[in-house]
Each structure stands twice: as C-alpha cells, then as structure tokens.
Amino acid sequence: MGLLIYLQNSHLASGFGLNTNLLETNLINLAVVIGVLVYFGKGILTTLLNNRRETIISTIRDAEERYQEATDKLNQAYARLQQAKTKAEEIRVNGLAQMEIEKEELIKAADEDSRRLEDSKNATLRFEEQRAIEQVRQKVSQLALELALETLKTRLNRDLHAQMIDYHIGLLQSMASVID
Fold it and tell me: Name one GO biological process term (predicted).
C-alpha cells in the first residue's frame, strides 16, 4: 500500500495507477471496447451494413416498381372508367333519341288508327244511311204499288183495261218500227 501511495503522490507516476472511480473507468472501458469492436468488427459491420443497404435498396426498388405498376393499373382503370362513362352517355343519348323516335311513331300510328276509325265510322254511317234510304224507297215503292193496285182495282173496268192494252201495243209497235 505504501507503494501505491507513493506512486499516487509521485510526479512521475501521476498518470498511471488504479482508478477506483467506477464512472470514469466505465467510460474508458466502454471506449476501449468500442475501439476494439470497430477495429476488429469493421469488416463484419461493413458487410452487415452493405447487406442491409442492398436489402433496403432492393425493397425500395420493389416498392417503386409496385408503385409504378399500381399507377399504371390506376391509369388503365381510369381510362376504362372514362370509356365506360362515354359509352354510358352514348347509350343514354341513343336511348333518349330512340325513345323520341318511338314516341313519334306511336303518335303517328295512333293518329293513323284514329283516322282509320273515323273513316270506318263515316263509311258505316254512309252505309247505314244508304240502307235506310233503300228501305224507305222499298217501303214507298211497295206502298205506291199497293196504292196503285188498289186504285186500279177500283177504277179499272173492262173498257179502260182494253184501251190500256191497245195503247201499250201501239207503243211497242212504234218502238219496233223505229228499231227496224
């Protein structure tokens, strides 16, 4: 112990000795261990860091490729969406135009049906009117014939009957002579 005290008190040995302060010795020990690790582990550490850097770069490249693929797919999907929207608008416009055409055709067909029904009604009315007129004529003719027969029966005697026959025979003879 005396030597130790002597060395501690001596000017030549002031930098060398046992340091019992744990905080100072731990820092020195830590610095020595890190230095040894850096010196001897430099190759291993460099290889590990290089491998890690390559893995990170590869992962970033893969992520960029996937990002580019996703962007391309998104652009393609957007283009298909635009095409679908355009097609849907075209279908809608065509549908509206077709609906207008069919509406006009339906109106024309309804007008034509209405005109045909009106013509049919008018034809039916004319037919019924002609039939009614014909029935009235027949009835009038029948009544006139009956009246004439009644009149002839009451007024016609033998002499008048003979005169009428002679008159008609003369009429027929004059017609025959005109024809010849």
Answer: proton motive force-driven ATP synthesis
Task: Tell me the one-letter amino acid at 50.
Answer: N
Question: At residue 95, what is the residue type?
Answer: G
* Contact indicator for 4, 17 with CB cutoff of 8 Å: yes
Tokens at 57, concatenated: 């770069």
**To 5 degrees, how large is the angle CA 153–CA 157–CA 161?**
95
User: What pTM did the predictor assign?
Assistant: 0.39
Note the pLDDT tens digit of each residue in 86-108.
999 999 999 899 999 999 999 99
**How far is Cα 82 from Cα 73, in angstroms, rounded to an integer?**
14
- Lookup: tokens for 144: 């006139």
